[in-house]
Amino acid sequence: MTIPMADYEVIEKAYPKKQSVKPNRTMIMLSSLIVGLIMGGVIALILNGLQYKIKTIRDIESAISLQINGIIPFYNRWKNYKIWVFDRPQSFFSNNYRKLRTDLKFLYDSSSSKNILITSIADKEGKSTTAVNLSAILQLSGYKVLAIDLDLRNPSLHRYFDIDNT
C-alpha cells in the first residue's frame, strides 16, 4: 500500500510585517455615516413617492380643482349600520351631515331635482353610511329623497333600514 504524496512545493516563505495590522476606525465610521445618510435619504424618497393617501384637504385641492362641500370624519362604530342622524341627532357626526346639507343647499337652487352620487375607489370608506345619513338629513329638512344602492358586489343599504335585500 502506497501513501499518496502531496504535489506542492514551497516557492517562498511568508515574512511577517514588523507593524501589526488593525482596522482604520475613523475611515469605517466616516464611510458608515455617509452610506447611512445616503440609504436613509433614498428610502425616505421611495416611501414618500409610494404614498397615495390623502392626509389633508390641501392634498385634494392641490391635486384637482374641485370644491369640497363637506368633511365627514371616520368613526369606527359606523359598522353597526345605524342612521346616526336619527339615533343621535345632537352628535358631532349629525352636525357634520347638517353642515353638508346646508352647503349643498346653497350650492344648488331648490327649483329642480338634483342627483347626488357618493363614490370612492375602495371599499369600507363610508359611502353607504354617508348616503344614508345625508338622505336622512335631507328627509328631515322636507326634501323628497330616494336612496338607491348600486353596489352590485357588496350592497349594504338594506342593513340600515332592516329590510331584505331581495
Structure, explained:
It is built from six helices and no strands. The chain has 166 residues and is an all-alpha fold. Helix 4 (92-107) crosses helix 5 (127-140). The radius of gyration is 34 Å and the shape is elongated. 11% of the residues are buried. The model has no long low-confidence stretch (mean pLDDT 81).
List the helices and strands and how they pair.
Layout: H1 25-49, H2 57-63, H3 84-87, H4 92-107, H5 127-140, H6 157-160
Quick overview:
Helices cover about 40% and strands about 0% of the residues. It is mainly alpha-helical and about 170 residues long.
User: Could you say which overall geometry the principal axes of the C-alpha atoms support?
Assistant: elongated
User: What can be said about the biggest beta sheet?
Assistant: none
How are helices and strands ordered from N to C? HHHHHH
Unreliable residue stretches: none
Average of the residue pLDDT scores: 81
Quickly list its features.
mainly alpha; 166 residues; 42% helix
